[in-house]
Design goal:
The structure is a homodimer. Chain A is mainly alpha-helical. Chain A folds into two domains: about 70 residues, Arc Repressor Mutant, subunit A (Orthogonal Bundle); about 140 residues, GntR ligand-binding domain-like (Four Helix Bundle (Hemerythrin (Met), subunit A)), CATH 1.20.120. Helices cover about 70% and strands about 5% of the residues of chain A. The first copy, chain A, contains nine helices and two strands; from the N terminus they run αααββαααααα. The first copy, chain A, has a two-stranded antiparallel sheet with strand order 1-2. In chain A, a hairpin with a 4-residue loop joins β1 and β2. In chain A, α1 crosses α3, α2 packs across α3 and α4 crosses α6. Chain A is globular. Chains A and B meet through α3, α4 and α7 of A and α3, α4 and α7 of B. Chain B binds a DNA duplex (30 and 30 nucleotides) through α3.
Amino acid sequence: MGTDQGTAGSTRSVYDAVWARFLDGTYSSGDRLPEAALADELGVSRTPVREALGRMLAEGLVAPAARGVVVAGLDHDAMLRLFDFRRDLEGYAAELTASRARDGLIAPVWFQGLKDTAAEFAVAVDQSDATAATRSNMQFHELIVEASDNEFLADAHRRAIARLAVSTALNLEDPTWAHQAAEQHDRIATAITTGDVSTARALSESHIRDATQIFSKTN
Amino acid sequence: MGTDQGTAGSTRSVYDAVWARFLDGTYSSGDRLPEAALADELGVSRTPVREALGRMLAEGLVAPAARGVVVAGLDHDAMLRLFDFRRDLEGYAAELTASRARDGLIAPVWFQGLKDTAAEFAVAVDQSDATAATRSNMQFHELIVEASDNEFLADAHRRAIARLAVSTALNLEDPTWAHQAAEQHDRIATAITTGDVSTARALSESHIRDATQIFSKTN
DNA sequence: AACGTACATATTGCATGCAGTGAATGCAAT
DNA sequence: ATTGCATTCACTGCATGCAATATGTACGTT
């Protein structure tokens, strides 16, 4: 989440715990999140649970219900809008990072890291290692966003990814698509590295558009 | 918070109250926000105050301090990054709304509303009514974002505007700039109405770029 | 007089208590 | 058997209490 580090408070740990449950599919959209039960399971009182759920409410991860909160569900159309928003964010990130690269603001080691991550992804795809693929895919996109050096973009991107992750296990199952994605990563990395701003943006947006297509087909 | 809910709970009212104080310049960046004092002033207990501040923390409006939270301050560079992010968001909003207009998804009455708001802004500028100008300016931009029909964009935009508002009374003082802005609004409205997607985006981005320039000069 | 230390104070973070309210359940009537 | 209604129950939302801790102050030392 946003900017909250340092404090290892209970609220934080509850947030992380619930977050983890979101990722491993413990919950489904619409499931209620009773604070007493969570408090009990996590060994804290209701207050930090309440705080954590409040933050999630502010972030849109959970939605207010008649009583308490429920896991925020996104219907198909909402997912498409979210993907579309993400498309713009990724395009902007690529644009920013490419322009920073063009201006010599990015250290060579970073380019190497990006290429390595892209390679890792390609390997994972070849080996049909879904877990590794998902991880390096996430990392690839995060790297670009981080390198854009715009914390506001990074924050918005994190939120978008979070909500996407809650509602769908980002699908790299389709091997054809996965290979295609790997290729696209390479091209994006090249465009960014060479400081080709407009191409970087175009390729990134196109990449997310394709991902949206895949999502749309399998959902 | 993003999508506000019907509940008129204490947490909500505290949030709004503090929010109002941000807008009318009661606080400066770095000011501490003691929860006991706020609770006393607002006639509630510390719990809802705590909740509200927690939400604001999640949104980045306040920052964690050694003790409690402080009003999040943005230095000049951060403001530039925020403006730049806003530029992208506004461009995206204009693009989306223009494309919806092109596809006949927008009711004629909305175009009229946009034009009216632009006109209101122009009048306020002519009369040097800063308050009215600020309000109709905000409304103009919000209208476009709302019409884009993407709640995720709307949320991000709201956050960005919020943080901009906290750190600077959006400056329409400069009469030259204000008049220029009024003209740009007109052109943007036209581009959107006629469904000219790329022009709408370009003009919107350019508009924010100019605003950034003004900010940069006077800060 | 300046600096460091120790104590007092202010303030947070978490736990718990209490009351209000929506939701589920059981009973009765058709 | 099903539907309507009343009662009960679970759960939330807000208030308050308590312990931990950072901050400010005063005092003693050099």
